[in-house]
Amino acid sequence: MDKLVIDGGYPLDGEVSISGAKNAALPILIASLLSDQALNLQNVPNLQDIKTCTKLLSALGVNVNRDQSSYSLKANHVSNFDAPYELVKTMRASILVLGPLLAKHGEAKVSLPGGCAIGSRPVDIHIKGLELMGAKIIIDKGYISASTAHLPNRKLKGCRVFMDQVTVGGTENLMMAAVLAEGTTILENAAKEPEIIDLGNCLIRMGAIIDGLGSDKIKIKGVLSLKEASYKIMFDRIEAGTFMVAAAMTGGKVLCNNINPKQMESVIQKIKECGSKVDIHENSILVCGNKKLESVKIITAPYPAFPTDMQAQFMALNVVAKGANEITETIFENRFMHAQELIRMGAVIDIKHNTAITKGNGYLTGTNVMATDLRASASLVLAALVAKGKTTIERIYHLDRGYEKLEDKFNALGANIKRIN
Ligand code: UD1
Fold first, then answer.
1. How confident is the model over 262-300, as pLDDT tens digits?
2. Catalytic machinery residues
3. Domain limits of the chain?
4. What is the Å distance from ligand 1's center to 145 Cα?
5. What is the C-alpha to C-alpha distance for residues 383 and 366, in angstroms, rounded to an integer?
6. Rounded to the nearest whole angstrom, what is the distance from the C-alpha of residue 171 to the centroid of ligand 1?
7. Which tens digits make up the pLDDT trace of 395-410?
8. What is the β-pairing status of strands 324-328 and 298-299?
9. 3-state DSSP: the chain helix, strand, coil percent, rounded to 5?
10. What global pTM score does this model have?
11. Looking at domain 3-19+235-420, what is its CATH homologous superfamily?
12. Matching CATH topology for 3-19+235-420 and 22-232?
């Protein structure tokens, strides 16, 4: 298993090109299941989760062709409707095949994702929504089996779905199912994340009729079939945010390119609050770190509020910044696993329920630490960049799931990171 060895203390300086968003690319790749025609995608990041996703799509019968960051997918010969546990357990987004398979083929069997390091992560809202659309769903031996065999033309029926909680995955699954349903579906209390808008815009390119993207009420009028389409995946907000925090923490100067700053507002606000200078351009953001780093108060919540996927990175920032502060996680109940590892590096963190109280002591020291999940790994990399001496981060396969060439990008900015096999 690969490890990263990071020698801390080098300020970052330069430009970084932000890759395509994992959290937009995965649902959009899966959207290919809705059509018999080709879906051509650009700006797909080269990540382990993308490989798992295309492996799953190929297993279902989708023809997948790749040329670097461009993919062409054609799902005109899908004959297998089962997403097995072996794939779903390594990538929770696999659950998103449920809606498209059911809408297109009237049948789907998908493993329940189960718990994961950051919390229990149920899928009851996905299931309830599909049931409201007329699907018969049975949960047995860890699998969700869904069918529309009893419905006229085996088609899901459009309806109004009020989601009890804002769910990104639930909104995506139901939006994709509704695209081929009979009649109109209204998703209320829908998630407003930019990645959902990106999926919706790709579906519109494919011929779907969708209104209200980016609001909490999305209206989808079902169509009979979709057409060939090309689409460029949006930038990765979390990768951009991670580099912005790195610039702030190291007192460096980093220009993040190929992004849309309008979709980064909550993170920009916090970077400014910690004392860094932020220059916003049309497609880039320049962050100039200040030697006097201030800690910031964070409360995670659905978009446009502060993203749960940036919480761990800001914890790394707070533990080396001035003053005590609070980080409250409202999306997942167990998303503070990085705190224990940061404490091993000298951080002062006190956890009370879903709030971590950080007391910046100004410095960390390098040691051996273990990555526990994707964003936790990023927070350890950030901590290691400013720690005294060498930090070895183990289990970085978590990092490879979601960050494209992270060490190469950091090294190009002046960091000293080695990957050891
Ligand atoms: C969540 C984040 C997303 C992030 C991703 C990966 C939010 C709203 N979602 O998306 O930004 O990129 O993790 O870290 O910030 N829930 C249920 N029943 C369901 C579905 C969800 O109770 O059927 C709950 C979850 O347990 C969680 C909350 O709703 O507490 C939001 O979950 P959801 O948005 O679905 O999670 P992801 O799609 O994984």
1. 999 999 999 999 999 999 999 999 999 998 999 999 999
2. 116
3. 3-19+235-420, 22-232
4. 22
5. 9
6. 10
7. 999 999 999 999 999 9
8. parallel
9. 35, 30, 35
10. 0.97
11. Enolpyruvate transferase domain (3.65.10.10)
12. yes
